[in-house]
Design brief:
The chain is mostly beta strands and 1002 residues long. 12% of the residues lie in helices and 45% in strands. The protein contains 18 helices and 46 strands. It has a 22-stranded antiparallel β-barrel. The chain has a five-stranded mixed β-sheet with strand order 3-8-9-6-7. A hairpin with a 4-residue loop joins strand 25 and strand 26. Helix 6 packs antiparallel against helix 7 and helix 6 packs antiparallel against helix 8. The longest helix is centred in the N-terminal third of the chain and has 20 residues. It is globular. It is a multi-pass membrane protein. Keywords: Cell outer membrane, Membrane, Receptor, Signal, Transmembrane, Transmembrane beta strand, Transport. Pfam families: Plug (PF07715).
């Protein structure tokens, strides 16, 4: 075990476990957990003590101290077996949630979200913590199979807050304001180091034109020290990301009820600046819930939720690919003013062409992106207690999402410069609609020692939508973005050129019909059996393969209720659980079993001054045999409570096998590039551990703590027809800088990096030196990295050296190997909450241990590639040197060795970017995610003015991170492909958030 793992382990023991174990010595006055707490498990609520499945839950009480604008951020690290990862630090950044590691290879690993009984995509990013009553995550197939379709990746059940009947109307306002600041920046060469490096590049080969060009741009060697050691440094990262970004968030809740009704109204408004210039996030939301008892047997309710959001700014990369890397401009642009006859704050077209760089501030002004989304959720229910034992419930829901994205590229951008230096606009529009209807019949009966609960249900889900895409070139050079968005007719093609036509597309309709049932049987309050089955019919698959069947069963034994433990006073609960189930996944586009035509301008014809789209057959080959992906899950767990519920927790172990994976496989057929197939198997094995306790429970002081720890081991068992006969792997491109930099391999985990092993640099001892010609020639038997890393240039002392793994005496593609995985060995979080009289304090940590991060920025910023006049990472200052302190090139082996006796870095390679082990770093971290300090006025203090509760609080989010990772943040992951996680490339830097707020109830 390495030192980092040991240090974190002992930190847990000292901060958490030892105090919890020691608290058994102190007697508490009251029970701190509610034994009758209920959780939502598959269409009905169940007493927590009767749950037989693997379920993690978090209640509103745990989220109240989290002043964040996304529910996903609020639950990060709080649920065992649930990984929550924000891709980067930009406002409104995408959030990935995986339950027990995820099961798919090329498909989405997102869980199924159910909000108040209605399916809603990406719900955790849309809901605010203040409107959530509870979140339950169903993790094993014995609980998820009741949801059949898409249950394979877990199910997240979200219940929003409701009013209370026979309650007075209360008004709560919770508002906070704060400021965000960048946490850290990437170190680069200072101005003097930069010009010394450029001197070497321009002068190394002795080309007269290059030597003159350097002197013209930067000055003679004798001028460099005096000119650049004291020159004004331009810290582009600070200028682009260094502003104080303010946030204003308002939450207003009004709830109450009469004898027969209850209502809750929630209003939310967020105005959040990003730390990057001209970036930000705004959202306005209203949510109204109403419940009414028509009679003692019949009641109904409805929920209406609408939100509008706007994300401003292009960020640091639109796709994370090399061609769209905007972060490069802030890191590699020359770090000082001067060096050209054009001022540094003006656009220099020659410099842009020669360096592939644009002043980051100018570029940021010339790129505009407004991403608007409107989300509507309508749902209603009717509940009829037919008899005291039989209940009918019907829920109908409608979800609609409209996304409007406007993008503008001004004259300095590469897109405009490729189109006669004229601005470009792209307008994207999409709408998706989903209608859901669920009907259930529930029978409950208790007779003697027997308790029976039977659920029968039927559900239909209908999804539709459409989209449009308009790409308009050749706007007047002086046009403003807002003018271009509003008047695309202002674009006029130059003579002889044509405009692309707008494209529209319909979202293939998705239809799902389901029937399900579940039986829950309890005998003598000791033995519990839960069995369920669901049948799903989907139009995603061809007739004959449309129906999938998903059975499940689980058992629980309340050992505490046995006679031999009944009188053990220090034991409050001991329950053993086992479960087995099958769940499914159909998350591919509908009708892929048939050949359809795609409409595209690429297949069109010219008509007038525009292109009329034409149709061509899809490059995805039809597959009439594709069927449901299936996941089999086995789970065993134990729940416990001790010392009058002062110590409580659970342990779960699981094995999840997924077969018939829905994989987008490459096919060798002419005219087609891929095909969806049921190909391959994966497996996840893991352990989950939760522990909580009340360490101190005095009248004036309480101290509570909770911890969760999860370990998951992912493995690919088969790739099926996804590989050629006799092969057990295939390579994957992340789309960044390293070519095929991941591998999908049988026996390895999903997210395995693949590249070369860095062996340092070539030293003088690796060469023969010809004094007459002053030429270094690589010795026989020393493998050459020339073809792979150096652009086929002859190897010289100081060049990057790669390891010859197969021992054939040369560096080729065959020398690539697995370089680690993005999968952590274990991860989790722990929370400490304190109360002293009217003061409260909470500290929340989350952590990950054993995962690797692909620092693609580090590879790029230490590789020269094709361009001079680019700044580099600070470690390049320690590179191999060819020139002495007088600016004279050194060739003599003895003198050259002495010159580099104290340098360790290689010369930045001039070949293509490749992944080598230098870019793979330990991504383990311990983050203090949140510290909150609050003060609540004593009850009754403000009764005279109608204030029931008044609390002031101050919070710091993302306080610090303990990590060896050298990039912006170890949690960055800029790829959406499940096969290529953990890539930090052009990620928007993460910030620290300082907050003050007030919580008032009237």
């Amino acid at each position: 075990m390495n030192k980092k793992v040991q240090s974190i382990k002992w930190l847990y023991l000292s901060v958490f476990l030892l105090p919890v174990l020691g608290m058994a010595q102190e007697k508490g006055k009251e029970k701190e957990t509610n034994i009758d707490e209920v959780v939502l498990v598959g269409y009905t609520k169940v007493s927590k003590k009767d749950v037989t499945n693997a379920v993690s839950s978090v209640k509103a009480e745990a989220l109240k101290d989290m002043p964040v604008n996304s529910a996903a951020e609020a639950i990060q690290g709080r649920l065992a077996g649930v990984q929550v990862q924000t891709s980067e630090g930009s406002p409104g950044a995408e959030v990935d949630i995986k339950v027990r590691g995820g099961t798919s290879i090329t498909g989405s690993n997102a869980p199924l979200y159910i909000v108040d009984g209605v399916q809603m995509d990406n719900a955790m990013s849309l809901l605010t913590p203040k409107e959530i009553e509870s979140i339950e995550v169903l993790k094993d197939a014995s609980s998820t199979s009741i949801y059949g379709s898409r249950g394979a990746n877990g199910v997240v059940l979200i219940t929003t807050k409701s009013g209370r009947k026979r309650a007075t109307t209360t008004i709560n306002y919770n508002g906070f304001t704060g400021v965000r600041k960048i946490m850290n920046t990437l170190d680069v060469l200072d101005p003097y180091q930069f010009v010394m490096y450029q001197y070497e590049l321009y002068n190394k080969n002795g080309v007269a034109d290059d030597i003159t060009a350097f002197a013209t741009r930067y000055g003679t060697y004798n001028e460099l020290e005096s000119k650049y050691k004291n020159v004004k440094t331009r810290d582009w990262q600070d200028e682009l990301f260094g502003k104080e970004a303010f946030n204003f968030t308002h939450n207003l809740t009004v709830n109450g009820g009469s004898e027969k009704s209850a209502f809750a109204l929630t209003l939310n408004h967020v105005d959040e600046d990003g730390i990057m210039l001209k970036s930000g996030f705004k959202r306005s939301m209203v949510n109204f819930k109403y419940d009414y008892d028509i009679s003692k047997k019949l009641k109904f309710g409805f929920n209406a939720r609408y939100s509008r959001s706007l994300i401003n700014g292009v960020g640091t990369s639109s796709t994370g690919s090399q061609s769209n890397n905007r972060l490069r401009n802030a890191v590699r642009y020359q770090p000082f003013e001067g060096g050209s006859n054009i001022p540094v704050d003006d656009f220099d077209p020659s410099y842009a062409t020669n360096t592939n760089l644009v002043n980051p501030l100018i570029l940021n002004d010339n790129e505009v992106r407004d991403n608007r989304s409107n989300d509507l959720l309508l749902n209603g229910y009717i509940n009829w207690n037919i008899t005291k034992d039989i209940t009918f419930r019907s829920v109908i829901g409608y979800v609609q999402r409209d996304i409007i994205t406007n993008q503008f590229w001004g004259v300095v951008t590469s897109q405009a410069r490729a189109n006669a230096d004229m601005p470009i606009v792209q307008l994207d529009r999409s709408q998706s609609r989903r209608i859901t209807n669920t009907n259930t019949l529930n029978y409950t009966k208790k007779f003697g020692d027997h308790k029976l609960d039977i659920l029968l249900g039927q559900e239909i889900i209908k999804t539709d939508g459409e989209s449009s895409y308009t790409y308009v070139k050749w706007f007047p050079k002086s046009i403003l973005p807002e003018e271009a968005f509003a008047n695309i007719a202002a674009a006029t093609p130059p003579a002889g050129l044509i405009q692309d036509a707008a494209r529209t597309a319909a979202l293939p309709p998705d239809r799902l019909a389901s029937f399900f049932g579940r039986v829950n049987y309890i005998y003598a309050n000791k033995y519990i059996l839960t069995a369920s089955v669901r049948a799903d019919g989907s139009n995603v698959f061809m007739k004959g393969n449309q129906w999938g069947y998903f059975p499940a069963a689980s058992l629980a034994w309340k050992i505490k209720e046995e006679k031999f433990l009944k009188d053990v006073n220090w034991l409050d609960e001991l329950k053993l659980r086992v479960g087995y189930g099958l769940s499914g996944n159909n998350r591919i586009t509908s009708y892929l079993w048939a050949n359809f035509y795609n409409v595209s301008a690429n297949n069109g014809y010219v008509f007038g001054t525009s292109v009329t789209p034409g149709a061509a057959i899809s490059t995805t080959q039809a597959n009439p045999n594709v069927k449901w992906e299936a996941t089999v899950s086995k789970n065993a767990g134990i729940d416990f409570e001790f010392f009058n519920s002062r110590l409580y927790g659970s342990v779960d172990g699981y094995i999840t096998d997924t077969k018939d994976l829905l994989v987008l496989a490459k096919v060798p057929f002419p005219g087609y590039s891929n095909q969806f197939q049921n190909s391959g198997k994966t497996q996840n094995k893991g352990l989950e551990f939760t522990l909580g306790g009340v360490i101190v429970n005095k009248e004036d002081f309480t101290w509570k703590t909770d911890i969760n720890l999860s370990a998951n081991k992912n493995k690919i068992l088969s790739l099926g027809s996804g590989v050629r006969p006799g092969q057990d792997s295939y390579l994957v491109q992340s789309g960044g800088i390293g070519g095929f930099d991941f591998i999908a391999k049988v026996g390895s985990s999903v997210g395995t990096y693949y590249g070369y092993v860095t062996e340092g640099r070539y030293e003088i001892s690796d060469f023969d030196y010809n004094a007459a010609t002053q030429v270094y020639t690589l010795k026989a038997g020393v493998p050459s990295s020339s073809a792979i890393a150096l652009g086929a240039k002859a190897v010289q002392p100081g060049d990057l050296k790669l390891k010859d793994l197969n021992g054939d005496g040369q560096i080729t593609d065959a020398d690539r190997t697995e370089l680690g995985s993005a999968q952590p060995k274990f991860y989790g979080g722990f929370n400490q909450t304190f109360r002293y009289k009217n003061f409260d304090m909470s500290l929340f940590f989350n952590f990950s241990v054993g995962n690797k991060v692909y620092n693609a920025n580090k590879i790029e910023n230490t590789t020269q590639y094709l361009y001079r006049d680019n700044n580099m990472a600070a470690e390049v200052a320690d590179r191999w040197r060819w020139f002495d302190n007088n600016g004279v090139k050194v060739n003599d082996p003895t003198a050259l060795a002495a010159l580099n006796a104290n340098t360790t870095m290689w010369t930045p390679p001039t070949g293509q970017y490749i992944l080598h082990s230098y870019g793979i770093e330990d991504g383990s971290f311990l983050r203090l995610n949140n510290v909150t300090l609050g003060f609540t006025l004593p009850k009754g203090s403000l009764d005279a003015v109608g204030v029931k509760n008044f609390r002031l609080y101050a919070t710091v989010n993302n306080v610090f991170v303990i990590t060896k990772y050298s990039g912006y943040d170890p949690e960055a992951s800029t790829r959406r492909n499940p096969l290529t996680p953990g890539v930090d490339y052009s990620a928007y830097p993460r910030s620290r958030f300082f907050v003050t707020g007030v919580d008032i109830t009237f």
